[in-house]
Amino acid sequence: MSCTSSEHSQSYWTTRPGHGELRTAPLPKRETEQALVRTLYSGISRGTETLVHDGRIPPGVAALMEAPFQEGTFGGPVKYGYLSVGVVEEGPDSLVGQRVFCLYPHQDRYVVPVSALTVIPDDVPSERAVLAGAVETAVNALWDARPCMGDRIAVVGGGMIGAALATLLRRFPLGRLQLVDPDPSRAALAAELGVDWVHPVDAAGNCDIVFHCSSTAAGLSLGLGLLGDEGEVIEMSWYGTRSPEVPLGADFHARRLSIRASQVGTIAAPRRARRTHQDRLATALDALKDPAFDALLSGTSPFEDLPNVMRDLSSGTLAALCHVIAYPGADEPAT
Q1: What is the pLDDT of residues 12-53, one digit of tens each?
Q2: Secondary structure (DSSP) of 206-274
Q3: pLDDT digits over 112-151, tens only?
Q4: Residue 105 Cα to chain centre, angstroms
Q5: How far is CA 285 from the centre of its chain?
Q6: Region of residue 126 (phi > 0: left; psi between -120 and 50: alpha; otherwise: beta)
Q7: CA torsion sign, 203 to 209 to 211 to 212?
Q8: pTM above 0.85, yes or no
Q9: CB-based contact 303:325 (threshold 8 Å)
């Protein structure tokens, strides 16, 4: 059974490097086991989405970087994004009226398989729920690193991913946790999260684990320098078309240091046999019951302003951790 709709949707497209626009298109038919979702909010994953906006996705990894419901190709035109929160308007009775998270681009209404939707817990506000993708990335990194009681840990880079990691790590019985960033404004963020912020020159060494999230060669070099003997950097940065120098000289080998990549596209190996992608996303949404995550939401703009918002984020005119896009009717009850 399917239902035909003559209604249209609006979505954001990067038309060419540095330029984007809203486009209108008909909604497709909704088939059995699909749902029609009306978007309430979407979040901008600044690091990846500005690379897409600027046309800086290397061709060699383009296939790996595709979002689940992406249309078009990198370089433009492309419809990209993966932090969408909405309410189900049509679909199975058990889902109609439910708030859901979906890895969907910036679009006001869309039709997707029911299997692509994760119900948001009642005690997680809709705006906060757009952080599910960032928190899922952080959960995967923790599964990769497996921090232990009493560990000394540094998170280098206080952007959205680094801040999400620090927010989760503050629950662990660690010996030390520092959020390391040269931007003094991160001190206020760290205070809201209840973790210690330090400037790179003041960061404590002899760490067991360093999570590197700054996407800079200087940050990676710092992370290696903060490790104790046989310590490990969990590399979470993605550099696009840039190739940062990695300081493997000096005492890297003598101290048996390690650098290990953590990437959210694959479940971390220590949990891969026992967790699905849906399990991991549900874990992230459950973690978002913690109101401390609200500190990562750094502003809201209406959907119609999204082309200007992307331009300003890319140029650095707009500073943000996670900038939220509000859609028409977002403040109405999700029923």
Answers
A1: 999 999 999 999 999 999 999 999 999 999 999 888 899 899
A2: -EEEEEE-S-SHHHHHHHHHHEEEEEEEEE----TT-------STTTTTTT-EEEE--TTS--GGGTTT
A3: 999 999 999 999 999 999 999 999 999 999 999 999 999 9
A4: 13
A5: 13
A6: alpha
A7: positive
A8: yes
A9: yes
